[in-house]
Amino acid sequence: MTATDPDTLADRVQDGDLRIHELEDHADPDTAAEARRLLVERETDADLSTVGDYAFPAEQAESTIENMIGAAQIPMGVVGPVPVSGGAADGEHYLPMATTEGALLASVNRGLSVIRDADGADARVTKNGMTRAPVFRVDGVAEAAETVEWVNDNVDALREAAESTTSHGELLAVDTYVVGDSVYLRFAYDTKDAMGMNMVTIATREACELVEAETPASLVAVSGNLCSDKKPAAINAVEGRGRSVTADVVIPGELVEERLHTTAEAIAEANTRKNLTGSAKAGSLGFNAHAANVVAAAFLATGQDEAQVVEAANAITTMEAREATASPRSDKRRSREREDGTTDLYAAVSLASLEVGTVGGGTKLPTQAEALDILGLRGGGDPAGSNADALAEIIAVGALAGELSLLAALSSRHLASAHEDLGR
């Protein structure tokens, strides 16, 4: 055996001659991963043959993980296609989803099928801004006010400093907050087609140096949790983070009854009592049925930061029974008198803080890149940011389909039987 043989490398780690994170310094990434697997197998009696059976060079994952031993394989499916009329997304789209939750894709696909028969959904990104909020120390409120005044008067200088670190990111705004002797600055950036957390952290650190040089404030941490990243936070539900996106559709009353086996009024009531009143009583920041379910599966499939599903759960679902109207994308008139008295269903989901990208991070991994190819959204868009906008809009339509399907199942009392029928 050579010095770079996986068994030898594993022996050296066990003997204390090497640390487990140093293996890539002595072998190529795949050999290092194999040595690490051997070490873990020896010490745990686990069989990692499946973990080690991955389909891409380990070198491609170096920027996404440390101490690699292999890959976790999650079943991936696809739902759709469904027509989406968006600000960036246009036409019919399949949505890839990776999950281990049985019945999820079947439910979403049912909702998408109904949306399709209703001539598709509208979707729009209404706000865009990835945030980072450093916290500074001052002696008291006088210095805090001095710092805030300087920041408000010098946003252009902060923009120049921040944007000197990136060829893509643009500083949109800096909001100030004072709590005693702490000053928080919430920087918001347009990160184009990148999700952008690393970008905005580096840019904000550069801007912080200018704040320290020109004000009495001293930087405590480049993230003061007012961002707020990967935590439930009202500020994200109100102000947004990443992309704020809404999708909506009007479902004809006859479709609701024929395909969802319930009525617009019943779905609207279930939404009000469950998603609005129930969520308010629980003190929830999310007023929806299971939007995070669809977001999580789409995130895993397309290489997003899965922990940011926390912010994506800041979603409000709206359901309303409406008098029949004309479809905005069809010549079919629905304003006619209904002999059966059915009403249409207006359905919408608004995700305040959906953080997605089509470049960087996990989007570069082969499986995730192929999933983005299904959507036609791999890499940067033209204009910049349009691919990430389109991804946000399509995910929002998927979340809308999930909300529609689940609320219909609840209002028709078919949820438990559906799971039984699918053997879940």
TrEMBL record:
It is an enzyme of class 1 (oxidoreductase). The keyword Oxidoreductase applies. Pathway: Metabolic intermediate biosynthesis; (R)-mevalonate biosynthesis; (R)-mevalonate from acetyl-CoA: step 3/3. One of its GO terms (molecular function) is hydroxymethylglutaryl-CoA reductase (NADPH) activity. Residues 321-341 are annotated as: Disordered. It comes from the Archaea. PANTHER family: 3-HYDROXY-3-METHYLGLUTARYL-COENZYME A REDUCTASE (PTHR10572:SF24). This is 3-hydroxy-3-methylglutaryl coenzyme A reductase. It comes from Natrialba taiwanensis DSM 12281.
